Amino acid sequence: MTATVDFSTVTNSIAALTITGVTIKDVDEIPESLVMSPSVLFPDTNGFITGIRVERDEMTGQWNHLYYTLHYRYIYCSASGGLGGLFASYSGLITKLAAVLLAFASDATLTGAIDNEAPEVSELGIVEDPAGDRYFGFVISLNIKQLLEV
């Protein structure tokens, strides 16, 4: 018997979502630095997949459910002061947060998943890109359930 675990089908369907004014990157497109590239949603390089667990769905163990959480980091704009002060861009960040939440809430089930719960947001405020540069943004987490046949 062989089992197939395919995270890429789910991540590809996330990358294919359309959110006005937001560029969505897949796992093979993670930027090292986002200087001059605002409004980007990409897999969080600090623990992209967490909480992996398998539960049997029936007695033979042939059908199982695979559960895990995907974490994405959203970068809105630089966290430097500028003309309007440090928090001049904060309202725009909140507007983009609403658009990202709506996109995930509107997609009842991502391709490759048999269920995904409502997203959870953390670290709303100043976040870092993979190079350590500071931006306004947030981390959004998606709890995924997939069918696993062994």
Could you tell me the mean pLDDT?
A: 85
Percent range for β-strand residues: 35-45%
Low-confidence stretches: none
Q: Which fold name is given in CATH as the topology?
A: STM4215-like
The percent of residues in helical segments reads 10-25%
CATH class category label: Alpha Beta
Anisotropy-based shape: elongated
Just name the CATH architecture.
2-Layer Sandwich
- Structural class, from secondary structure content? alpha+beta
Structural Rg? 17 Å
Q: What is the count of DSSP helices, taking H or I runs of 4+ residues?
A: 2
Structural domains: how many: 1
How far the N terminus sits from the C terminus, by CA atoms, comes to 6 Å
Q: Can you write the helix and strand succession as a string?
A: HEEEEHEEE
> Main beta sheet, described?
7 strands, mixed
Number of strands: 7
Quick structural summary:
It is elongated, with a radius of gyration of 17 Å. The chain is built from two helices and seven strands, in the order αββββαβββ. Strands 1, 2, 3, 4, 5, 6 and 7 form a seven-stranded mixed sheet that branches.
